[in-house]
User: Which sequence fits this backbone?
């Protein structure tokens, strides 16, 4: 396992930004593959840390090749590295993500990127019925010092079908994603303490995940669905 992000990763992606073509990449592929091995080791260190306080059943490392079939952007390669950590279902819900990109564009994210239609409705109905518990989590000083006090992500303009635009929790109900993000500078990413910083941030999200897992595994009467 690796405790640090290799410094050459940011330099490589900066060069790739200027030479995003197959000829250049194929010529420099051995360098990328060597960096990839070190980065995967770092992601596995995060996985190891996560499993000391959570239950992760899968680490997914995303490939560098872009799917350009339905994109106007035809550049063949991503200029970042990403990996996601999936909590063990069905009891545990939510996930973690680490994105490494030069020019101070690195970040971590947690939450629910694309909740299933049934899960999204269940979350919205919970907030419609009682938004006090989620508000309390968002207001926690330790929590919002790391993650802020509001979700990021897409939302409907006014109100989802079947919900009142006048509801006191409409700011929560109209969300289509329930995500938190935290950005890092290049200097922070390369710092020897970055692994601990990421683990501390991921650990702080736990009250939110515990709450959402409870919501998504019970019906509106609190009866278990698993």
Assistant:
């Amino acid at each position: 396992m690796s405790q640090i992000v290799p410094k050459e990763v940011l330099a490589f992606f900066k060069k790739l930004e200027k030479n995003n073509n197959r000829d250049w990449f194929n010529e420099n592929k051995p360098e990328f593959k060597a960096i990839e091995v070190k980065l995967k080791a770092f992601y596995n260190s995060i996985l190891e840390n996560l499993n000391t306080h959570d239950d992760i059943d899968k680490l997914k490392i995303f490939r560098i090749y872009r799917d350009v079939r339905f994109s106007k952007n035809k550049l063949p390669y991503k200029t970042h590295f990403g990996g996601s950590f999936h909590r063990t279902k069905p009891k545990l819900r939510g996930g973690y993500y680490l994105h490494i990109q030069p020019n101070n564009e690195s970040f971590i994210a947690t939450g629910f990127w694309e909740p299933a239609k049934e899960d999204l409705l269940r979350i919205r109905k919970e907030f419609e019925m009682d938004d006090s518990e989620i508000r309390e989590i968002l207001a926690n000083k330790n929590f919002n010092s790391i993650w802020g006090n509001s979700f990021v992500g897409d939302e409907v303009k006014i109100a989802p079908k079947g919900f009142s635009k006048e509801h006191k929790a409409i700011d929560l109900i109209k969300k289509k994603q329930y995500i938190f993000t935290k950005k890092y500078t290049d200097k922070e990413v390369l710092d020897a303490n970055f692994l601990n910083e990421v683990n501390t941030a991921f650990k702080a999200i736990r009250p939110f995940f515990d709450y959402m897992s409870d919501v998504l595994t019970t019906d509106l009467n609190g009866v278990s669905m698993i």
The beta strands are 56-61, 81-87, 95-100, 106-112, 178-184.
